[in-house]
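Service request form, structural biology core

Requester: graduate student, group of Dr. S.
Request type: structure prediction, single chain
Budget code: on file
Notes: please return the result as structure tokens.

Sequence provided:
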Amino acid sequence: MAKWGQGDPRWIVEEREDGTNVNNWHWTERDATLWSRGKLRELLVGIVVENEAGRCEVSELKQVDGEASCSSRKGRLIFFYEWNIKLGWRGTIKESGAKHKGLIEIPNLSEENEVDDTEVNVSKKKGDGDVLKELMRTAGTARVREALGDYLKALKTEFTMGMILPTKALATQEVTVKRKLSEDAMQAQASSPAALGVRIPTVALHMTELFDATVEQLYSIFTVKDLVQQFSKSSAVLEAEKGGKFQMFDGNITGEYVELLTNRKIIMKWRCRNWPEEHYATVALNFVPTLGQTELQLHCKGVPVCKEENMKICWQKQHFEEIKGLLQLATLHG
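Core staff response, request fulfilled:
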């Protein structure tokens, strides 16, 4: 093995303070699973098709099982994705005003098949309304496949931003820019065992969201296992006490509770599976009662620069929107 500094000149990680894979020579991989779930929801839910007989809409993402990832080697991107998707649709017959519901199932969206050949099965609950089922089977299927194509385009462009990195000539300039972005946040990471010799550029993130719930209801959704599993639609492990561990979204999110002030605040060490090893952000959730609602204030420090957008999507799509859906269900059944 060559000594440090005497090896293949394409390996110049030692010349970068953040240890980035310059010249794109080495294998890197990103887990696109959480990002994909949010993107699929964004593109599929809300699709509307209409004709002289009726109007139909994709109303919910009932299930999205599978995974996706992107790997880079020698400047070439390699994609893997495999999804089993179930959607709910609802429609109205224009002449009678009758309403009907049904399912759309996509059993195998993967790189093995072209989008236009992807199987899309449309079904409807028993009774009349076959005219709506036919509308979804024809125009609806076409729109669904179009949205799946948009997902794949986004996976290969939006998600992969930053994976094909500048060559050595631009490396120094890039490090300077990243260092300015992360100057205030690096101290926390420097104490991590994984940070010895490698500083990870990080940013802070702040978000607020209003929920139609009491502080007690909203706080319990983050600290009661059954409720976490309901809004995340996946298995979870929770030890809601100081020093307790948690695991959500089938292990894609893990961390530890640092502080819990009942119905007021939760502070957590928080990481996503595809972050640098042993790197955690600090997430603080403040529960603020307002008139008939609760404002959730999210303050997060230590997010890797390249994961900022994914972090926003994770909280907006996988947390906030799903929790609102859970609260609506609770209201309907209350």
